[in-house]
Amino acid sequence: MNQNKLSSKLYPLIKAATTAALLPILFIYVMIAKPDYHLMNALGHVVVPVAQWVGDVVTWPIRVVGGAIDGITDVSALRAENEELRARLDAALINKNACDIAIAENKKLSQELDLVNAQPRDTVIADIIHDNSALGHNTYIVNRGAADGIESGMVVTTTDMVLAGVIIDVGAHFARVRALTDADTNIAVRVVGTEIYGFMTGNGTSRPTMGFFSDPEFQPTKGIKLITSNISGVLPAGLVVGETIDESDVNVVQPARLSRVLILKFDTHKNEYR
To answer: How far is CA 207 from CA 139, 199, 201, in A?
Structure first.
């Protein structure tokens, strides 16, 4: 039963294909044996479309295979190009990481070189015994004085070597220190890792300000580290002063938060550590 149905479907298709294949032969026969141009013209309108359809049917598998091959070729080319771009991107990322590491190490070395001069040869440990803040002035008293070899102009730092003030008066067993926040403070500083100099001035508040930079094109921003410079011949170079909060204000050590400090035996006449 199924075979009969299949035969009934295939027969018309075979018949149509046979007819389509015979039409070009009939057309050629008419052209040679009986060249009737009216008949040839009429047949041409039938034969040419049929021949084109037969050609499309016959060549369809070839065209499909050819298109698939072109697609595979394009995909292969894209994959190869993608792999090459990935390799270049990986190489670029490796180079960028190497550059970032080198920059970070260079910055660290620059800071270490800037601070190497800040290591003192002789220090005196002192305790703060009085803090005085009034009318824009901020000073405090330490329990070490002339009997301990302390002189006016010597530098006071925290225990981790951050500048905390300068000694301005000395007694036998005590000394008075001007804090960085004092209105009379004016310290020559330098931007870490650069040759850019400036002056930090106290104003009686908790935030001294930067009023000058040697490079007019330098744009100060938050997070810039400042160290002492010896261009004024008053302080030793290389001591950490503080870090900028914005383009002008500086975060420095607050005396109220200190209990113990170091006094650096700095020769104020020769401008060097003893």
So the answer is: 15, 14, 9
